[in-house]
Amino acid sequence: MRFRVAASLAALVLLVILVQSGSMVLLLHEKEEEFIEKQLGDQIEHSMALFRRSPEATLPSTPAMWLYRVGQGEPGDEVPPMFRGLAVGNHEVYLGSKEYHVAVREDERARYILAYDVEDHESRLDNLMLVTVSAALALALLTLVAGYVLAGRLTGRLERLVGRVEQEAPGPLAEAGMERELLALAEALEKYRERQRLTLEQERAFAANLSHELRTPLTGIRTDAEMLAALPDMPEAAVRRGRRIMASVDHINRLASSLLLLAREAKPAQLEEIRLQPMIESVWASLLLISPKPVALHLEIPAGSTLHADPTLFELVLRNVLDNALRYSETGEVVCRLSDSRLTVRDTGPGFAEGDLERVFDRFFVGRRGVHGLGLALVRHVCTASGWRVSARNASGGGGEITLDFGQSLLRS
Question: Does residue 73 come out as left (phi exceeding 0), alpha (psi in the -120 to 50 range) or beta?
Answer without folding.
Answer: left
